Amino acid sequence: MSHRRTLLAASIIAGLCCFTGSVLAQDATQQPAKPKTAQEKADAAKAQQLEGITVTGIRASLEKSLDTKRNADAVVEAVTAEDIGKFPNTNVAEAMTQIPGVAIDRLFGQGDRVSIDGTDPSLNLTFLNGQPISQTPWQYGAQPNRGFDFTMLAPEVVGRLEVYKSPEARLPEGSLGGTILLHTLNPLDLPANTVRTSFGLNYNDQASPGTRPSGSALYSWKNDSNTFGIVGSIQHYEEKIDRQGIEIFTYSPISKYAGSPGVAAGLANGSLSPNLIVPDEVNSAWFQQKRKRDTATLGIQIHPTSNWDIDLNSLFVRENFNNFNQSLYPFFGATPNNFTSVTTNNGVVTGGHACGNDSPTCAGPAASLLDSQVRHSVVRTSAFDLKSTYRGDGWSIGGAAGYSKAVNNDISQAFMEPQYSGGYTWDINKGFAFDSPDAARNPANWHMGDTPNGGGWAGNYGQYSARSRDTYAQLDFSKDFDSFFNQLLVGYRFNRHEEGMQAHVYGGNAPISLAGLGTDGYSDTLGGFSGILSGASNHLIPDQNALYNWVRSTNGGNEDPGTYLNGTYNVVEKTNAAYAQLNFAGGDFHGNVGVRYAHTVTDGSSFEPGLTSLPPPPGSFVTNSNTSKNWLPSVNVAYDAAEDVVLRFAAAKVIARVPYNLQVASNLFLNDTPLTGSGGNANLSPYKSTNFSLSGEWYFAPQSYFAVTGFYKKLADYVTLATAPEIHFNSGSINTPDIFAAQLASGLCTADGYCTYQVTRPANTGSGKVRGGSLSYQQAFGDTGFGVTANYTYAKASLDSGGGLPYNSKNSYTVSPFYEKGPFSARVTYNWRSAYLAGGYIAGAALGTTKAYGELGATLGYKLNEITSFSLSGMNLTNEQYVQYIGSPDQPSGKYTTGRRYMAAVHFAM
């Protein structure tokens, strides 16, 4: 037998040696009068500080959060329900930016996914009352993600949350950066007959009409003996999302456009470099959505005896994501020989002119496409969880079981692609302008297969279904000891996750022009961008209802085989995990050491690649199985260096599993116009990391502290996305023959319908590291009513093979001054993060960089009396642009504005 010492093992051994020496020294001095544990010391100090003092509101919430942080064995951050309500937010993720190291992405103008200490949101798990909550995408082709989508959870549901930045063996595995634990309100912690209600309006100044309603109600009751309680709540929330901007899907080498007169001459005389790249389109994008979220919760607590607890919690969420998406773009790649002139900068063709059928000297018509999509989507999520704990004399046993399901059988999409054939001038940063604006504004000139040379496409109808289901069961046992190692925890947990999708697309719609279909005015999607080209805005908007009805009523019902064969999959993941953990406390030390073992089997099923017709042959839906086994040791040490100073050290080996649908080899999403795609890989291993953390915390005054934290994560088997050419059948050869003909002429496709796609797939690329630290500061300035919370995080991440890590911002910070005195309260919050890698808007889009982003929000409150209060909040008050680029800022891929949002509400509490 061979033995190998690792840095982590050495750290654990060294730490335990130090602790043992400390315990022996304490025993020798025999000072039993001091509190036995660090927990007791913290409680005693707090009792002295707060004797005769009662704090409420923001200060009370800060105090509760600090109590959790100070007394924890691990590196833990906390936010309370009252604190969540004092921030400008529409979901819990927005309030979490107060936690050092936490950053959120705002692709649609609001926080949805949470990055912790520079790690991808997919690599951080979230649990509600210890239970995983099933999730399913609301749109077909959405970027894959295992992390939690916080937009689904109403802030009123959460009683408190903790972020464990250093793991404990008892906690479920699966997070690289941190584990987020959400807790709902417990009826036995609330006064009997508690009633809370609120009514409000939400307004977006970019949307029209932008005002939507919201409301919530909660009732809690318990008996006089505090042994039975029940709490129920309902919430309704609506908001209008309006995202406008410029998108560029792909870039190509200038050789693709060598047949254009404006390019050929420049290449010949050397004025144009053969290394230039050219955007294949410049898209004016407009996404409109009315989001609706209805939530209901029910919690029951039963204490049959003083040492027996039973908790039952349930959650029901219905979300409506219906939306209308438009993309108007001169598609250079479809007519690559039409350029009459180009301009360049830093290796990129940044603008130019292309002729069309409104020019008698042009070789052929241009192709400007107006992709119009009316999409319906309703996600239904439910969760049920039962826990019970029995405490004996120095021991306890507990069990838990839960079930969660998310279903979206209502993803449907009516799509059509009118084409205008006139010439245009374009600019990579400002959009485009048609040579004949009046002709471009005439709906009779926008065709969908209704004329021999009109181009365009009458579209198709898509019907998709997605489902996800989680089941878990857990058994825990603890035994107390009267020694330095004062408690042993052991347990077992079983998780089963299943999810899948079916995709069906039907074509054969009847041809029509926009004049025949009907329009609904003009858009102004580029109005928010300075320096816009004359005439670039005010393009036609198809009538949404007419579009949907035309596609549905004239659809020929011919199913596209590629969508079904590439977009249908199923994943089943089963995990058996066991743990053992020793808690210790003595003298000025407390903490824990433990190990967790996880055995995971993942079965990914999909159709064999290469199939091109329906029905698929029997036995072609195949399963690939992958097994991983991981031992995960951890140690957490807290040392009370003084009454108000805590030092911490933590080390652990952690894993994070790959997003579910990336584990299906043949799962493939193809975009037939730009010839891009994204797919899976059945042979992926989990991400692995060895994490270290060292911190110091100074609690220098009530509700106040200053902390410095350093962290280092040594990564292995990191999964990144790589793009490579693959040959697949192009459904556009059937659905969009004009576009396919141009692709064929460009040598990108063959006559039998197969094309070369740039497909992005995941792969384990080896090792890397994340190293950095954070500063956090919080203080309430005496009785002035003023206070501030602030944090800064530095996280430098890299792969040893080169390149950065997705969603890693090197610098981020949050500053939030507040005032609360008498009936008035106010809070301003500004958070900022530097540039980071992130996926594009469409699946298969190149991995781009999101430019540095700052968000300013504010909340005002007034308490009329003990029952009634008012609040007014604003978010994105500077109307920040969300900008993405590929490689360098000279290659933009997206620029969006989402508008300012305001929320006004009246609250009642009894």
Question: Main traits of this protein?
Answer:
910 residues; Maltoporin, Chain A; 30-stranded antiparallel β-sheet; four-stranded mixed β-sheet; 12% helix; disordered N terminus
Describe the structure concisely for a colleague.
This protein is mostly beta strands and 910 residues long. Helix content is 12%, strand content 52%.
Please state the overall shape, judged from the principal axes of the Cα atoms: globular
Question: Would you tell me the overall average pLDDT?
Answer: 86
For the report, how would you describe the main beta sheet?
Answer: 30 strands, antiparallel
Structural class: mainly beta
CATH first level: Mainly Beta
- What is the number of helical segments per DSSP (H or I, 4+ residues)? 12
Instruction: Look at the structure and name the CATH superfamily.
Output: TonB-dependent receptor, beta-barrel domain
Please give the number of β-strands: 50
Tell me the distance between the termini: 67 Å
Low-confidence stretches: 1-55, 840-845
CATH architecture: Beta Barrel
Strand content: over 45%
Q: Report the CATH topology name.
A: Maltoporin, Chain A
Helix content: 10-25%
The domain count comes to: 1
Radius of gyration: 29 Å
